[in-house]
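ok, trying the design again with the full structure, not the truncated one.
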């Protein structure tokens, strides 16, 4: 653009949207085994009585869960559901982080000075909207992470098969199971994360401790500050 250096051109909503989703996908690739271990620890014992659940626990601790899965199901089991996980991040993070600035500008009618209320409203809006969009991918991801490969057949053979099976056996509403608590949780989380980041960024800018415009998504994309 004429009159702007390359580093002075503000990122468009599309760039923020894609940048946030891509950064989240990279993070998911690195941390997915930990997420899988978390799911296995959360669901173990659900088919047993409360008395026997602790005594016969298959997984103990994060590292113990990962090692047990590698030994009994193979290393690939740690990434069971990765496709759905990447789909989730590309849709979820893109909305909740990538659209935050645009939604905040909408609530402030383009004003450069956004109140805390406007920021909280923007954070809760994008957090809730992200869940509404990405909930089916989250359901499929967790279902894949929960099913063990060892000792029995697998209910879902592929990501597409999982979407089809859930929709056929449980109805389309089955793909949005758990949406209400997830919306409430992520609206709060998004407010805490992005609004806190936003306020700290403004404080640093006013104190001349850094220069330039750093949209929320830049916290997730190295090199954008």
């Amino acid at each position: 653009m004429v009159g702007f250096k390359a580093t002075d051109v503000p990122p468009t909503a599309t760039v923020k949207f894609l940048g946030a989703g891509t950064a989240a996908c990279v993070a998911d690739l690195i941390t997915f085994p930990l997420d899988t271990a978390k799911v296995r620890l959360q669901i173990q014992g659900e088919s047993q009585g409360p008395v026997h659940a602790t005594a016969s626990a298959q997984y103990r601790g994060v590292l113990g869960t990962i090692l047990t899965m590698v030994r009994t199901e193979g290393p690939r089991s740690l990434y069971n559901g990765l496709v759905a996980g990447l789909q989730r991040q590309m849709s979820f993070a893109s909305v909740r982080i990538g659209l935050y600035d645009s939604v905040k500008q909408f609530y402030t009618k383009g004003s450069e000075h956004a109140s805390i209320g406007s920021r909280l409203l923007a954070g809760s809006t994008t957090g809730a909207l992200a869940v509404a969009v990405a909930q089916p991918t989250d359901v499929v991801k967790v279902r894949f992470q929960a099913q063990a490969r060892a000792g029995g057949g697998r209910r879902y053979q592929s990501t597409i098969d999982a979407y089809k099976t859930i929709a056929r056996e449980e109805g389309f509403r089955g793909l949005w199971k758990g949406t209400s608590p997830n919306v409430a949780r992520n609206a709060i989380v998004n407010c805490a994360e992005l609004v806190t980041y936003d306020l700290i960024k403004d404080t640093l800018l006013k104190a001349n401790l850094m220069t330039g415009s750093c949209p929320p998504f830049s916290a997730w994309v190295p090199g954008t500050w």
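Keeping the full-length input from now on. Confidence is low (pLDDT under 50) at residues 49-56, 217-225.
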